Amino acid sequence: MAPEMPGFALVWWDDFDGPAGAGADPNTWNIKNGSGPNHELQRYTNSTANLQISGDGQLYIIPRKDGSTGGWTSARLEGWNSFSCDPGHLMVFQAEIRLGQNPGWQQQGIWPAYWTLGVNVRQGAGWPKCGEWDILELINGSTTNMATLHFLNPAFNGHDQRSSGQVNFNRADFHTWALKVDRTPANIRDEKMTWYLDGNPFFEATPGALGNADGGVQWEDVAHREFFPILNVAVGGDYPGPPNDQTADGLESGMAVRYVGVYKSNTQ
Predict the structure, then answer these.
(1) What digits encode the pLDDT tens for the residues 36-77?
(2) φ/ψ (deg, to 5) at 42
(3) How far is it between the farthest Cα atoms of the chain?
(4) What SS3 class is residue 58?
(5) For the segment 204-259, what is each residue's pLDDT rounded down to a tens digit?
(6) Nearest 10 degrees: Cα torsion 209, 214, 220, 224
(7) For the chain, counts of helices (H) and of strands (E)
(8) Most buried one in 8, 110, 180, 202, CB count within 10 A?
C-alpha cells in the first residue's frame, strides 16, 4: 500500500493488489504494445509473460528473449491520469522499486526506468516540449541512478537537459524514489524540483539552473504542467547500446514495483 505522507493527501496510487499472474489494471495504465522510441530493440506487449502481478502486492516487469529468433519483448505502462502541482502547493511522485539482481555483465542493454512525460505529448506538443522527468533511470546493471530533466530550450528551439544528479544505491533492496515539485514560494524564481532516494535529496533543479532565473516558458513546461507516470524496462537503444550474447532475460533483469503514488500538499 502506498504510505501516508504527513501534510499530504494521496491523490492517486496503484499498490498492485491482485491474484498472482494477473496483468496490470488497464483502467489505471495504458499498457503499450509495439516498438519503443530511442532505437530500442524490444517489442512492448501486454502479455503476462512480460507484465504480471505477484500476488503479494508487487508488479513485475520482465524482459524476455525469444530463444528461436533472438528478439526481445518487455513492458511499458503509462498512467492514464496526469497531475500538476497547484500554485502555492507541493506535489510528489513516488514509487518503491527493486531492480533485477543479475550482475552487470548479464545486463548489457537493459534499461529500466521510472519517469514521467507531460500530458501535452498526448495532445500533439511533441518531445521535448512536453517535458520529461527521469526519476529512476540506469543502464547495463549499474548501481548509479541518473536523475534528468528534459525540456525545450526556447533560446535555440531545441532539446536541453539538466542531469547532474547521480546517486549510488544497493540493487539488492527495495528503494523509494521520488520527485517533489515545490510551488510554495511567492516568486517563481524560488520554486524548485527535488529528487529523493529513500527520503534523502540527491538532485535539485531551479528556474535559474534551466537558464532563466525569472522562470520562463521552459520552467513552466517542466514544473507547472500536468505529468503522468511511466514504468518500463527497455532493451537496447541509444543510451545503453544493444544487448549481447551474455545478456540474460527474466525478472532478475527486470523490475519489481510495490506501489506508485502521487501526493499533493493539503495546506498552503
Answers:
(1) 999 999 999 999 999 999 999 999 999 999 999 999 999 999
(2) -75, 160
(3) 60
(4) coil
(5) 999 988 877 666 788 999 999 999 999 999 999 999 999 999 999 999 999 999 99
(6) 100
(7) 1, 19
(8) 110
Distance CA 161, CA 40 (A): 21
CB-count burial class (<10 Å; 0-12, 13-18, 19+) for 14: buried
C-alpha cell at 208: 535559474
pLDDT category at 203 given cuts 50, 70, 90 is: very high
Write down the pLDDT at residue 191: 95
Handedness of CA 15, 172, 94, 33 (dihedral sign): negative
Q: Give CA separation, 257 vs 16, 99, 112, 225, 245, in Å.
A: 8, 9, 12, 26, 27
Strand-pair partners of 190: none
Other Cβ atoms closer than 10 A to 4: 11
Q: Which residues 6+ apart lie within 8 Å of 29 measured at CB?
A: 14, 77, 78, 79, 80
Q: Report the DSSP pairing between strands 227-235 and 64-65.
A: unpaired
Tell how far CA 4 is from the center of its chain: 21
Report the DSSP pairing between strands 132-137 and 110-118.
antiparallel
Helices (H), the chain: 216-223
Q: Return the number of other C-beta atoms located less than 10 Å from residue 233's C-beta.
A: 26
